[in-house]
Amino acid sequence: MAGYILRRLLQAIPVLLGTTFLIYFMVFAMPGDPLLALFGDKTPNPALLERLREEYHLDQPFIVQYFLYLGGIFRGDFGTSFSGEPVSEILARTFPVTIRLAIMALIIEFVGGVIVGLVSGLRKGKLFDASALVISLIFISLPIFVIAFVAQFIFGIQLGWARTTVSTGAPIQDLILPAFVLASITFAQLVRLTRASVIETEGLDFVRTAYGKGLSRRRIIPVHILRNSLIPVVTYAATDFGVLLVGATVTEGIFNVPGVGRTLYQAIIRGEGPTVVSFVTVMVLIYLVVNLVVDLLYGLLDPRIRYVK
């Protein structure tokens, strides 16, 4: 097990370096001068402009800029935004909000998707199954911003059950509605995946053998059917956590959530290389850690899986 974890950590190094290099290259290749955009319609002082270029290393070749940034990361320095605020402070302010939102959405998606998908798979061809498939298809077909605006109108304006925008500090109660909206599409996909996995598992020999031995349905469903059906579901949910982190941009914008998505979008527009690359670097690290944890959970879900050389 220890050797497997070490190999996975070593494999993560080229992934991290490659990701930061590609993102930094794409930011560097963006047209226009990001410093000129800071001044808007005003003409900046050439001396001030030159000083800013030197301060942010924009007068250096791309490869020099990249290695300077990479060296800063290993020292714990993520650079400074064009507004003068350290990127580490921006990360500390915005990432907890988005992670909180993503975790809430993941819990809603996983719990709801597994329960509905399990019942739908066990009742294949019946009214509940048909209703679940139709509703999930509707959610998959609708763009996320449509679901967000409809949820705001119904639950925020008409019923008054939730705030239409998130207040300062992003308290948990304000994030409930955005979390449901963020989880809606992936919830529908998880329902379909769980349903298909349950139907496939229920037809396997060991499940029929369990029925033949006279085991009760209450014993067979959680131990034999659900447990073996969760492997592809857990894989999907783990990869979806990274999608929720990055894909929260639209939801955060509509609900005014002060998180990563909105900040990252603004940084891309302004061409702030250090801010964009730092945000992506942290996202990649989270994504790699989550996938490692999920791989280790496979052994608990399926005892046949062993981590050997």
From TrEMBL:
Cellular compartment(s): Cell membrane
Keyword NADP listed: no
Transmembrane parts of this sequence: 12-30, 97-120, 132-155, 175-193, 233-255, 275-301
Record domain ABC transmembrane type-1: where: 95-298
Keywords assigned by UniProt, alphabetized: Cell membrane, Membrane, Transmembrane, Transmembrane helix, Transport
Listed CDD domains: TM_PBP2
Membrane topology, record value: Multi-pass membrane protein
Pfam families: BPD_transp_1, BPD_transp_1_N
Family affiliation: Belongs to the binding-protein-dependent transport system permease family.
PANTHER family: DIPEPTIDE TRANSPORT SYSTEM PERMEASE PROTEIN DPPB-RELATED, DIPEPTIDE-TRANSPORT INTEGRAL MEMBRANE PROTEIN ABC TRANSPORTER DPPB-RELATED
Protein name: ABC transporter permease
